[in-house]
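For the sake of transparency, this paper describes our internal protein records without simplification. The remainder of this section carries one protein's record, kept here as part of the documentation:
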Amino acid sequence: MKQRVITAVIALILFIPVIFIGGVTLDIVAMFLGAVAMSELLIMRKKLLISFEAIVSMLAVMIQIAPNKWFNGLPAQLNKEYVVYFLVILLLLHTVWSRNRFSFDDAGVLTLGMLYIGMGFNYFTAARGVSVYMLLFLMFIVWATDSGAYMVGRKLGKHKVTPISPNKTWEGCIGGSIIGVVIAGAFAIGFHVGYANAFSMILITIVLSIVGQFGDLVESALKRYYGVKDSGKILPGHGGILDRFDSMLLVFPIAHLFGLF
């Protein structure tokens, strides 16, 4: 527990200033985090980090996260989505020339991971582009929901949500969403994070809180499938980048879908 607390404090001391600085600094940090998250998936898949598929998939993730203005020099018909598509084609071609070392299944897993991680961190930086308070609001939904679900589940949890994550209970999920709405809602009111009315704020915050818990369950299923406890070891006591951002990777794209940024 002491190690977890120390790691969390150090991570926040380093990460929170980057959020407030924003701009190119945040873009570069987000690209780095996305590449690390992709490397964790590669390792779980038992793929070398120094390999053609690793370079292509991590490059595709970073391109998705990079600001659109970095690609202004490309021809009008060639945006960064087409560049990512071209990299996917390279992965498919790699299945032909790798002598079965790299299969179509491998290409499919890495392509899905590229979209999942790349889009999640892309909308992470897009939220900061609106305001630091919008980004913090969305992060508070995740943090408050996770903490609330843990505390309520530990005290009152009796009914398991799924065998994939035996510590998750329905009582914890409901309690976590309630706490997430209260804390994030108070933050939204205090910092005037944009909602047309209180009802919209409560409804969308509930949905994002639930989506965040789905993200956590997806990551649990992924780790269970590959037989690992944590996605990585970059954060002592907390696991990897995928472990820390699993909920946010789903919350940010859905928040964009709701028109929050």
Observations:
- Residues 1-258 form one domain.
- The mean pLDDT is 90.
- The chain has one domain: 1-258.
